[in-house]
Amino acid sequence: MSYRSPCPARGKSVYRVMFIQGVALVTTLSCLLLFNACSNTSLPASAMSSGNATPSLNVSASLPPATVGSTYNEKVTVTGGTAPYTFSIASGQLPQGVLLGDKTGTFSGTPTAIGSFSFAMSVLDSKGLSKEQGLQITVANATNTTGGSGKSFSNVQHSAGWGQYGQGPPNFVDCSPSPCDGISFSMNQGVQSPSMSGAASEYTLGGTAVYSDGLWNNHLIGPFSSQGMPDTSQSLVPTLHDFTYDVYFYGTNLELSQAVEFDVNQFYDSMGFIWGHECRIAGGNEWDIWDNQKAHWTPTGIPCHPNGNAWNHLVIKVQRTASNELLYQSITLNGVTNNLNLIYPHGLAPADWYGVTVNYQMDGNYRQDGYTVYLDNLTFSYQ
User: Residue 113 is part of which domain span?
Assistant: First the structure.
């Protein structure tokens, strides 16, 4: 089990934390003035006027936000220079699924990932005059009603904002980037096969340090939110109490995994709520849950036998009770629901830890055999 905070790393924690230019042009008329002073010929008035100033291009400096799964079609405005213009991306990155028309200056497509994407666009006119303009497109996730007042984030596995870390025994202190401390780990988004949505994410774990882990964490609500919900007034997070972690996972060699872990985390008012769920595979094919106060795994007696080389559907439901306890409600794997209805006291957290986060983790076995798991259609619901 590992913890990550929305603040800088503090050892084994459940949250983690996570742009452009200036141009100057100078012109001088000194040679013209010298020529005029040394001859009886007067220069035309046009040569002495501001008509000789360097021509310029002006580009609209902002673009509206976009939403994952919704069509985006926005055009920049160019003034000055001589049409037609040619457009290109000089640096940075456009949102996945969005392209720039090189003749139109139109950003179009359907965004598939959340985040703030900063880039520089270059405009070239027909006379060779050019201009670079820094731009940004912020892509938010669509929030969909899931019943009552509930909301959800979809395709979180393809979202921006994922942090990744290695952890090894005995203290499981974070290390990054990979490889580190004998641990190798990686995340690759936008995988088309195997995939259900066409945008799965691939996670790998390996290295030489046995029984070491790879941890991936995403801040959903609160500071560093990948979903555009920073909750700066700190008025939302304390009101949330029901959470669902719904994901499909596919392993090509799951038998090499010590365990795969899926966690929901909530922090506020110095309280820590860590709903940890671990499917022990090489460790005995059983579900364990995390005891916040005693900081250890508790076996549930519920079997966990995910299918290899096939998609497994996992749905985890948890709740923060009115008395601020953790209620583990149910685990559903491939259509089979096991109701837990187990309650544990909350843990403690530093006062500056705040927000709602999710984790995915892969644990290495006694030989640290390398293995790969794919996640897809990760939906997180809250109310």
Answer: 59-140
